[in-house]
């Protein structure tokens, strides 16, 4: 059965941020009383929105104080939070009428979530390009840099997202990893890792569990030899995932005793300032291959970024 499309917002994005949709109770309670009870502390903001017509029903008509919930939905913009400044350089790798591929920096989330709303790749691009219809075709973790693809035309959005869901795309990543004690070469490096990965809601880390594999990652040396510095022994790897589980590459490498350098989640969660990007996760989405949803052309996008520990103090840039 085809997935139902979510309802379209009657309000345009504000500062690149979509309006929120709230489903109301099926009761005669007023919309305002219902919202204030569900979101305590938001009374002043909600009252201002009500006064200015900023809370609307799905057809765009403004909500009035006496309107009952009646099982309907309303839309409005939440107040924008104070956020730390993050890197926002997003060089364009490809652009046509339907698609936009950019080179995301480390530390910038893909979409609004948690503490970051305006400081995300999506909101920055919508704001700077004036394109409210931009939407991500897939996502990169905040900590991961590299190729990130957006759709510009809503008509191709579903087709592109299905390519990722159906594993009809191809990706390569590069990573700098710590070596297990005693490793002086990469002769013992496994060619792949296959396991079952799950991630529980509200838990920062994903984990491997018993059961049929749902995550497969190809692994090969990117540089032939490891190197050492004051912090340990390191190797550069090329990773080819054929699945897309949450934190898959980070979980697989950590399970092999080779956590990615400066990973704030694996093997242990490291507390950090929300705006601190001084030690970026050494993981880069180097290439992404897709089929163009309109022309049928095979496209491959390649990041121009470099992992800093491959530049200094490690080997020469690749």
Question: Can you give keywords for this protein?
Answer:
alpha+beta; three-stranded antiparallel beta sheet; 318 residues; twelve-stranded mixed beta sheet
What does this structure look like?
- This protein is an alpha+beta fold and 318 residues long.
- The protein is built from five helices and 15 strands.
- The protein has helices at residues 31-38, 43-52, 121-129, 154-165, 248-255; strands at residues 20-23, 56-57, 73-76, 92-95, 99-104, 135-136, 145-151, 170-178, 192-198, 207-209, 215-221, 227-229, 232-241, 283-291, 298-302.
- The strands form two sheets. Strands 4, 5, 6, 7, 8, 9, 10, 11, 12, 13, 14 and 15 form a twelve-stranded mixed β-sheet that branches.
- Strand 12 and strand 13 (232-241) form a beta hairpin.
- The longest helix is centred in the middle third of the chain and has 12 residues, at 154-165.
- The protein starts with 19 loop residues before the first strand and ends in a 16-residue tail after the last strand.
- Residues 313-318 have low confidence and may be disordered.
User: What's the count of strands?
Assistant: 15
Poorly predicted runs: 313-318
Number of helices: 5
The computed structural class is alpha+beta
Radius of gyration: 22 Å
Distance between the termini: 46 Å
Largest sheet: 12 strands, mixed
What is the H/E order?
Answer: EHHEEEEHEEHEEEEEEHEE
> Which shape, going by the Cα principal axes?
elongated
- In percent terms, what proportion of residues is strand? 25-35%
Percentage of residues assigned to helices? 10-25%
- Overall pLDDT: 92
């Amino acid at each position: 059965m085809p997935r139902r499309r979510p309802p379209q917002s009657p309000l345009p994005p504000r500062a690149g941020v979509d309006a929120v949709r709230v489903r109301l109770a099926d009761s005669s309670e007023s919309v305002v009383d219902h919202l204030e009870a569900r979101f305590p502390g938001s009374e002043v903001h909600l009252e201002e929105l009500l006064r200015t017509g900023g809370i609307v029903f799905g057809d765009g008509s403004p909500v009035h104080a006496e309107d009952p919930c009646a099982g309907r939905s309303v839309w409005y913009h939440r107040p924008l939070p104070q956020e730390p400044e993050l890197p926002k350089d997003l060089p364009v790798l490809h652009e046509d009428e339907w698609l936009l591929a950019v080179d995301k920096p480390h530390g910038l989330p893909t979409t609004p979530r948690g503490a970051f709303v305006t400081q995300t790749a999506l909101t920055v691009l919508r704001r700077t390009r004036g394109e409210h219809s931009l939407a991500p075709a897939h996502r990169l973790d905040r900590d991961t840099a590299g190729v990130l693809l957006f759709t510009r035309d809503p008509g191709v959005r579903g087709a592109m997202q299905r390519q990722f869901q159906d594993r009809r795309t191809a990706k390569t990543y590069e990573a700098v990893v710590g070596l297990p004690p005693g490793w002086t070469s990469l002769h013992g490096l496994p060619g792949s890792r296959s396991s079952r990965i799950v991630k529980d809601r509200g838990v920062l880390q994903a984990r491997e569990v018993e059961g049929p594999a749902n995550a497969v990652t190809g692994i090969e040396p990117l540089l032939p030899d490891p190197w050492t510095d004051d912090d340990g022994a390191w190797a550069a790897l090329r990773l080819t995932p054929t699945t897309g589980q949450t934190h898959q590459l980070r979980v697989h490498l950590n399970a092999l005793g080779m956590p990615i350098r400066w990973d704030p989640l694996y093997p242990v969660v490291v507390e950090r300032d929300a705006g601190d990007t001084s030690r970026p996760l050494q993981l880069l989405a180097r290439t992404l291959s897709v089929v163009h949803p309109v022309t049928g052309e095979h496209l491959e996008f390649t990041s121009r970024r470099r992992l800093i520990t491959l530049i200094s103090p490690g080997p020469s840039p690749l």
